[in-house]
Structure formats: C-alpha cells, structure tokens
Amino acid sequence: MQRKAITFAILTAMVGVGTVLSGCGEQKEVTSTASSNSQGQSSPFETKLKISMFNQGTFNAAAPIPPREEDIQRQMLEKAVNIDLEMLIPQSGQATTKLNTLIAGGDIPDLIFLKSRADLAQYYDQGVLADLTPYLDQFPELQKRFSNDSWEAMSYQGKTIGVPGYDNVNGISRSFFIRNDWLKKLNMEVPTTPDELFDVMKAFTEKDPDGNGKNDTYGFIGGMNKEGNLQTYGFDSLMWMFGVNPPSAIDVKDNEPVFLYTDPKMKEALAYINKMMEAKVVDPDWVTMNTPDLLDQKLFKGKVGFMIRDARRLEPDYQQKMKEISGEVPEWIVIPPMTGPYGDQIVERKSFQGNSWAISKKANKDKIIRILSMLNYLFTDKEAYPNFAYGIKGIHWDLVDGKIKNKTSELSKEMKEKYLWVDHYRMPRRGDDAEYFSFQNPKTAEAFENNQKYVAATLPGNLLTEDPSDSLAADRQRYINESLVKFMTGKEPLSSWDNFLNTLETKFDMQKYKDSVIKQFKEAGLIK
Amino acid sequence: MQAKLAADAIPLTKKRNSWLRTIKKYKVMYALLLPALVYFAVFKYIPMAGIIIAFKNYNLALGLWDSPWVGFRNFTDFMNGVYFWDIMRNTIIISLYKLLFGFSAPIILALLLNEVYTQWFKKIVQTITYLPHFLSWVIVYGMMVALLAPGDGLFNMILKEAGVEPISFLTEPAWGRLLIILSEIWKDIGWGAILYLAALAGIDPSLYEAARIDGASKWRQLWHVTLPGIRGVMILMLILKLSHILDAGFDQIFMFANSFNQEKIDIIDTWVYREGLERLKIGLATAVGLFKAVIGFVLVLAANKLAKKFDGQIW
Amino acid sequence: MINLTIGEKIWQAVVYFILILLALLCLLPFLYVVAVSVTPESEVLRRGIVIIPESFTFLAYKEVFISHGIGQAYKITLFRTIVGTALNVFFTVIAAYPLSKKYLPGRSPFLLFIVFTMMFGGGLIPTYLLVRSLGLLNSPWVLIIPHLISAFNLVIIKGFFEQLPAEIEESARVDGASELQSLWRIILPLSLPVLSTISLFYAVGHWNSYFDAIVYINDSNLMPLQVILRNILLNVATQSADSLANSGAVSTFAVQMAAVVVTTVPILIVYPFMQKHFTKGVLLGSVKG
C-alpha cells in the first residue's frame, strides 16, 4: 500500500518537473507501428541484415555476454527487425582505444554508443558517422520518445547525427546528506544558508556529536576524480551555493558567455571552501577520494556529518551495511540545498543529453533504416519495454493483477549476480519510471521527489565542442583545476586571483578558447 | 673503358662468390636465424611505416596514407606545450632514479641470496619477494591509500597516536617521486633478481675454491669471482634499460598522480594520454613516441660503444 | 662453512635480517589481499586493514566464479601461456644460438636489426592493420603469434650463450657433432638457469597481458583472465554513478581481491618449481665431469 503511494508521489513530481520527458506519459493512446509487430509476429523486413553494435552504454561493462539461446533480449531485437545482432562491450577505460582500432581497420561498428557530445562531434568530423537527418522523419515515435532538448544535443553543424542514448536522471546522485541525530544532539536546526551550514559543520567537527569522547568526527568530505575535475564528488555542490562551478561550466548572460569558473563569484565560493579547510571541518582524507565508492565508505562509517551522496544510499541494503559497520544505523536525512548569497538553491543542473547512438558512415540506406527501426523498437515498443528496462519476465519482473511489477530489488544476491548481463540492455528505461527504481524506503522516494525542485536548467556550455587546433586545451584544463584546488586549500592565497586570470590569458591563450566559444554560441543562436 | 668494366666486374663476382660461400658454410646457422628475421621484418618493420603518422594530422576515416601531411606540427605542438619542460624534467629525473635504484636493488638482493647457505630459506625468500610483481598498480595504489591516507591511513593513525602531525604522503609533491621509486623497487626487486640468480648459478664453483685456497676474503671473492660472473648481464640490462629512458612508467604514475602532486610527477606519457589519446590526436601521440625512440636509440648506440671496452656489447 | 669466523657470523646475521625484513614487506600486502577476499565487507570497512580476519566468508569467490565467466577465460589463458611459451622459447633459442657466435658474418647488423625494434615501433593502429590483414583477428593465435619473439629475451639469452666457455663446444665439434647437436646436447643443458628464467619471463608475460586481447579480440568468449580481472577491478569506479543501474551489483572490495587471488595464484606456483635450476654450479660440474 505504502509503495503505491510513493509511486504516485513520484509520478506527480515528475509531471511537475515539466515537459522535459514528454512523450513518455503512461496514458498515451497512440499505438506505434513497431509495437504492433513485436513478439510473435514476423518483422516487416524480408532480408536479414547483420548489425554490429558497439555498446559502451551498458549499465555494467563487467558483466559477461551470455550465449544467444539465453539472451532473450538479443533474440527479441533480432526478431523484431530481422537482424543478426553482434554486440561488443568494450572494457571500461579501453573503449576509445578499441573503437579507434576498429575504425582504423575499416571495421566501423554499424551502431555505436558514444558517451559525450565531444565524442559524437569528433567522430563525425573525422568522417566516421552518418548524417541521420534524412531518415528520422520516418520514425515519429522515436522522435517523440525524447524531448526536444535531447534531440538538439544530437544536432551538429545543422545536422542530426545521433539518436539520444538514454534518459538521464536528475535529483538523485547529488543529494545533500546530513546526520539528523547529530543535529538533534547538538540542538541545531537543518542549515538553510552557507553560514548556517558552516556553523553546523564546525559543531560536527568540534563538539563530539557521536559522544565517544574522541575528536574523530568531521563536518564534511568531498573529493575529485583522477583527472582533478572538481565537478564530481561534492565540492561542485558547495560551489553552486554561489552560483558557480568548475570547468567546463559555461553559461550565457546578457548576450555573452559567462565562464563560471573564472567568474568573480567563484572567488567567494573558493573563499568559503578555504574557510572550511582552515577550520579543519573537512575530513583530511578528501584528497584521496577519487572514486564514488570511497565516499560511500565514508558515508557507511558515519564519522562525517554532511556529504553529497546518492539518495539511494537510504535504501535498506545500504542501511544494513551501515549497521554492520558501525553497529547502529546513523540517522541520515536528505535536506534541500542551502540558499546562497545570490539566491541560488541548486542540487545540480539538469543533465545534458550527452550520450548518443550514432551510425557508421559506411552503412547504406537500408542498413540505417534497419538500425533506426531497431532503436525505434527498443525505445518505443510498450510490450518490449519491461524486458529491456527491468530484465527477464518471471525473474526480474512479472505481471501482478495485470500490472507490471519490478521484482529486481527482491532478488537474491545470487540471482542478481547470475543475471548481471541484463544490464547491457537497460538503456530504454525511462527517467521517470518509478517502477524501475521501485524504492524500498519511502524516504528515498521523498528525497528524489524534493530534489526535483532544485534541478536547475542545463548549461548552454554543454553544446560546445573543442577546437581541434587548440593545442593548449589539456594544459589549460590542468592549470585551472590545479589553481582552483590551490585556492581551496590555501596553498595559493585568494589575493593572487587576478594573477591566475592573467596567467590564463598570457600563458594559456584563454582568448583563443573564448573566441571559439563565442563563435559556437553564435552558430547555435544562443548569442547574437 | 673496357678495362675498367672488367676491373669492376672481377671483384663483384668474387664478392658474390664469397657471399655464396659464406652462406653455404654457415647454412645451418643462417637457417636457424631465418625465422626470427622474418618475424621481426613482418611484425615489427612493416608496421613501422606507421611512423609517418607522426607527420600527419591523422584522420581515422582517411587512414594512414590519405590523412593530410602537417610536417613537424605535431612535434612543435608537443614542445610548445606550457608544461613541456616540466614533464621532460620529471620524466628524466624519475627515470634516472629508477635506473639507479631499480637497477641496483635486484642485484643486491641476488648477491644477498647468494650469501645464504640454507637452501629452504633462500627459496622461500626468493618466492616471496617475487609476489609483488603480480599485483597491478591499481591494487598497489589501493593499498597505499589504506596505509598512507592522511585521515584513516594506518601509518597516519599511528603518527596521530604519537602526537605527530599527519603527513599527506599521497598528495604532497615532495613525497610523490620518493613513493614512486620506493614502490617500484618494492614491486620488482624479486622479479629483477631472477635474472641475476640465473647468472650466479652459471659461475663455475671451482673459481670460488681456487680463490679460497688462495686465502681470498669474502670481499675479494665477491670482487674477483662473483661480480665478474654477472658483469655481462649487468651491462646488458643497463643498455636495455637505457633504451627506455623516457618511459618513466605510465601505469604506475597514472595511478599515483593527482592535482596536488602532478607538478612533480607528471611525465611525458601521462601528458600524451591527456592531450593526445583522449582527444583523438593520434598524430601527436605518434610524434612523441618517435621522439622518445630517437633519444633511446642514440643512448643505446652510445652505451653499446662504451660497453665494447668491457666486452659487454650487444652487437 | 662450519668454522665461521665471528665477522662472518655477524655478516650472516645481517644478511638474514635484511632478507627476512624484505620478505615481510613483500608478504604482508599479499596476505592483506587474501584476507580481504575472505572477510565480510563490513569487517574490512570497520577495521581498515585486515591481515587476520575475525570471520570468514567465501561469498566473494562464489561471485567471481558465477557471474564473470572465469572458467572459459582460464582455458584461454592456459592455452596462451603453455603453447605460447613453448613457441616463444623455441624460436628465441634457435635465433639466439647463431647470434651468439661472434664469428658469424653479418651478426652485428642482424643484432642491430633486432635491437632497433625495441625502441621503434609502428604504434597501435599500424600493427592492428597488419594483424588484421594477416587474418589473425578474433583468433586465439593472435595472443601468441604477434609476440613470438621478444627482442629483450633474445638478447639476454644470446648474452648467456656467449659466456659459456667456448672450449666445451669446440671439443664436441672436434668429435664430429653438428651445430644442431651441439646446441641440443651441450649448450641447452648448460643453460638451464637462463632457459628457465626466459621461460618464466615469457609465461608471466602471457599470463599478465590483457591489452592485446582487448584490441584484437571482439568475441567475449576468447577473452583471457586478465581482461576479466580488469573488468572487475576497474568497473567499480564508474558504474553506479554514470548509469544509475538498479541491479545493485557493484563489485565489492572483497570480490576484487578474490579475483586477484583467483587470477594470480596459478602463475605464482610456477616459480618454486623452476628454482631447482638455480642451484649454484651443479650443472657445470656435472657436464664437465
């Protein structure tokens, strides 16, 4: 009973988010051509085509590929559009190498999943990808499946060169976690401004909130990925309080590009973080936090009072883990983001449709249509949907009273492990599919729902692609990342901020980059 | 005119004859060598045509031959990078330290093992010191975090107990190179010693006996019997290591580098990874590879020449 | 050896002390890996560093075997290691023998020809194109043939051959043995230490490599162990954050370490078996006698 209520709440919340995910409403009456020829009926194509698929969009690259007879999803795809599907899952970290050698050898995969717009544009520029513009009109269902924003992200130099990869989900992975039991113990309120947050973090650090008599707690922990990009594990959320973010956050205001990492407000954000560092409220281990699982461990151990984590860590599995580790379940709650000095209250920006499906330039018209038909089936066929999004009928989901019920969360660990490979096909899952997530803890659902209010619009800078003649791009990126970290830690005083901006101009040819940005924004019609 | 031709022709046929005679004389030897020559020609020399990529703006769809030429653009892009001198300095310093210590540590281990008379002890130590070679850098780094992280790292917890300020080993630039070299030595000391142990096994025991009868001390035996016995391998390893002087160890440094310490440990290969490979600049990556190869080759030529003085040359 | 002087006794003690210390340094991390692989995750997180677990579980091993297709990968790795090493050693030895003869005309240019390839190479794409045109892609042989001879190992073995006393071979040749016979009967038995070393180098090389498989093989059934191991090790970092999968099947630390144990223990066992060839001087004496 309770679950139904949650599901309903999320759905209303999602509708509230806007028309972003339009075309996926549950009540839609339109029956597509693809769905009428799904299971059971023969495909409309007479000749069998061999399609190779480079699937780096899999939700689990470590999962093996099962033999064809066990691979129900593959059989469905093959049957629906009469193809012979060869799926290749590249190893994480080696996907680019693998794809490049395949292309160089002339074996361009027919269907390629690409992870970013930069990749899509690069491969198109190199003459590897087909222009899909002339064919998409034949697939109105597929076009309706994704929002206009998503399709815009597929367009490059006036052409549509990809199909959106899968729905992004916002408002879940960057949730503001705080220890409510610590707040209660210290008689403090949930912080709503940066200053209040600072006081809370300081108290968490100094006032022994866990009452063990040891000075072993901290107010906050964040991290950054191996590349030194601060846009990842927590510090970016602190920066949003001041309306800024690390590279490559670029906004457009008053007909001008605004580089949010060199904006004067960034100075304030850095000063705030530096104040935290000086007050020693940040767990010193933050410097080694370069993967999300390390931060999760910190969350489980419960010695840090405030962090940015995935709302699903409130789910019973993880609560159980916390109990095993520290003997008790810390009372983590997810709170709304603080309101910054300029009125910013942001969890994150709505994700840009970075990922995409692209088709080899070598594919002829027949093949392109066949591949698009396959994607059309994969993404829009109603009957097929649970088989891809949830998994195998009878195992991952079932019909209960005529309604689809996702049973994934009830599966034993062993069964989950046995069927890891269904993750290879989960891409059609809708961003607003409550049944897919089927949260066990009402608080997770509540957090997810509340966070939606604080998901701000996508930044226009996501549309930008790199100028290949800009030979200082990587060096510049490194310099900015290093400098921001130095300002944060106080290794470089903020008084040398102007010096930093000057060096960017003189040594790292920032002007060249700015020119390229302005040119691209003009082409995209974002500035005049 | 006529006479000149004839004069030319005679040594030519003579030469050809002597060639044929030589081949005939050593036909078995050349036949044994042939598979290797064919292998290197096919699998190493044919792909070497790809070096032209270094002078091209390589385009995946156009391929090797049709991509546009750019002259030395890829090389100048590399050398004009803001961090060029930094990464060159870091590469050479790390590489030289690795050459110095990474080269001598296994020799010392092999010599120490040579001093051990208890066979089972020797075998166990040998086997154990060879274990770390099989742990990939990902795992080694994971362990270093568990040991050295500034907060929860075991070592820093001990320091804290002792009232000493924790040290951020993994992020302090000053510690970066030291950790890289120490962990490299640790990982490959036992592995590297194997070759020297094989060389030590080849020393004729009668030489030691003779030395002992002459009343030579342990040190003199080491100096006059042991070291000469492994000198050949030492020189060989030194020359071979020089050929890769500009490879400071990508897999390792890629794991160890972060925003805090990379000013001291960012090397050529990590730079190429960021600037070249992640951005599809295959021409740039090839150019840097060629640059490294030329320097390595020059050093090997010089080292081989020098080694001739000790009769330790490769060719 | 019985009547050691005091100085020698102290020296021995120092040697043993250093070696024990080094052995501990090398052993503890490995014990840690094994310990983590059999300890429940919560205990590892609670205690930080575990060497002796308080409670045992073999769940991680079960997961490695059930969900990651380890069995098939074992076959491929064994194939490449056994067949590959045999071919490697054979072709390296037959080339090293003539190259070790200083009297052989053309020896220097041939050696230079080979050493040159240690520095200069065509790079990934040209090599891939070659392998592709030879029809080797997607075949288990692609894991063996492109690395048939390592110039490094060839030069080493050639160096050892050169150091063998020339007189032994000469006397055999005087007795009428052919080159092949003297290689087989004289040189190889005398070179057992270096032959086992080179075999180990090749075998470990085969066992540890993954990159060639990733590049040259598309069929997931032909992937060797190391590829699977890397999948397990590297996937953790990226998986949950990017794709928001709901299967909750992120490999845990214990599973990673179990994978390390499963994929390294077999090759570790090889070394002790070849150590008997390192016993000092035994061979030379026996041949001479």
UniProtKB/TrEMBL annotation, chain A:
SUPFAM superfamilies: Periplasmic binding protein-like II. Keywords: Cell membrane, Lipoprotein, Membrane, Palmitate, Signal. The keyword Cell membrane applies. It comes from the Bacteria. This is ABC transporter substrate-binding protein. It comes from Paenibacillus etheri. The lineage of its organism: Bacteria, Bacillati, Bacillota, Bacilli, Bacillales.
Automatic annotation (TrEMBL), chain B:
GO terms for molecular function: ATP binding. Coiled coil: none annotated. Pfam families: BPD_transp_1. Residues 88-303 form the ABC transmembrane type-1 domain. One of its GO terms (biological process) is transmembrane transport. It is found in: Cell membrane. Its main location: membrane. InterPro entries: MetI-like (IPR000515), MetI-like_sf (IPR035906), UgpAE/MalFG_permease (IPR050809). Signal peptide: none annotated. Keywords: ATP-binding, Cell membrane, Membrane, Nucleotide-binding, Transmembrane, Transmembrane helix, Transport. The chain crosses the membrane at residues 28-55, 92-113, 134-151, 189-210, 222-240, 282-303. One of its GO terms (cellular component) is plasma membrane. It is a multi-pass membrane protein. The keyword Calcium does not apply. Belongs to the binding-protein-dependent transport system permease family. This is Polysaccharide ABC transporter ATP-binding protein.
Automatic annotation (TrEMBL), chain C:
Keywords: Cell membrane, Membrane, Transmembrane, Transmembrane helix, Transport. The keyword Membrane applies. Residues 74-274 form the ABC transmembrane type-1 domain. CDD domains: TM_PBP2 (cd06261). Gene3D superfamilies: MetI-like. It is found in: Cell membrane. It is a multi-pass membrane protein. The chain crosses the membrane at residues 12-35, 78-98, 110-129, 141-161, 182-204, 253-274. Pfam families: BPD_transp_1. One of its GO terms (cellular component) is plasma membrane. One of its GO terms (biological process) is transmembrane transport. InterPro entries: MetI-like, MetI-like_sf. Belongs to the binding-protein-dependent transport system permease family. This is ABC transporter permease. It comes from Paenibacillus etheri.
